User: Which sequence fits this backbone?
């Protein structure tokens, strides 16, 4: 079987680890990476990683500039643009790794909101990308403990990157055998960037940084 043409979209350490997994796999061919642009300065550069390894980079960071007509697989890891139907249709399968226990905590800042709401647990989810925001069928999910009285957003974010990596590496070998399940809309919650003001002390990676604003 020919290697599957694959694209990784996103930013940071986990996107790099996942892109590198595809680059080294015999079953996949990493065709392009599409970084978030501008890339955040607080994490590693996906574009820099790709350039150093001769992996083609979509320099604009925009999905519409991805060359080619179709791909077997795409994986979004914290990519910050909503992907339209015409882009989704270019992939046999397009997946997203989301830092929340879907259908709860759709949208932005899921870790910040989980801590703000005093949740005892959080999660990471791999789901199929549809035209809705984080509403596609769930492929795989992992839940882990968080401690709002102790944890900073940075603590949970670091934990989420590790659990996200575990979920990805355990899911990929059996991806073709997994029957994705529809999300329960009755359990869904959603936060947009417009909702972030009430986060207060949870608006930044640490409460100390939030108080400095």
Assistant:
């Amino acid at each position: 079987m020919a290697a599957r043409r694959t694209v990784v979209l996103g930013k940071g350490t986990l996107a790099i680890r996942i892109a590198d997994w595809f680059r080294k796999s015999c079953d996949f061919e990493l065709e392009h990476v599409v970084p978030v642009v501008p890339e955040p300065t607080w994490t590693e550069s996906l574009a820099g990683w790709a350039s150093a390894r001769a992996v083609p980079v979509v320099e604009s960071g925009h999905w519409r500039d991805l060359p080619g007509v179709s791909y077997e697989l795409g994986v979004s890891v914290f990519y910050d643009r909503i992907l339209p139907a015409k882009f989704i249709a270019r992939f046999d399968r397009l997946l997203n790794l989301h830092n929340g226990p879907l259908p709860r905590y759709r949208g932005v800042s899921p870790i910040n909101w989980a801590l703000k709401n005093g949740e005892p647990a959080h999660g990471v989810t791999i789901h199929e990308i549809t035209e809705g925001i984080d509403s596609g069928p769930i492929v795989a999910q992992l839940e882990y403990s968080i401690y709002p009285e102790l944890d900073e957003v940075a603590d949970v974010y670091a934990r989420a990157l590790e659990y996200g990596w575990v979920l990805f590496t355990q899911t990929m070998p059996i991806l073709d055998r997994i029957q994705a399940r529809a999300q329960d809309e009755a359990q869904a919650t959603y936060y947009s960037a417009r909702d972030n003001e009430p986060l207060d002390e949870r608006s930044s990676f640490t409460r100390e940084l939030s108080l400095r604003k």
Q: What stands out?
A: The CA atoms of residues 108 and 192 lie 6 Å apart. The helical segments are 12-24, 46-52, 85-88, 110-116, 153-171, 207-212. Strands lie at 4-10, 28-35, 71-77, 91-98, 106-107, 121-128, 138-145, 190-191. The mean pLDDT is 96.
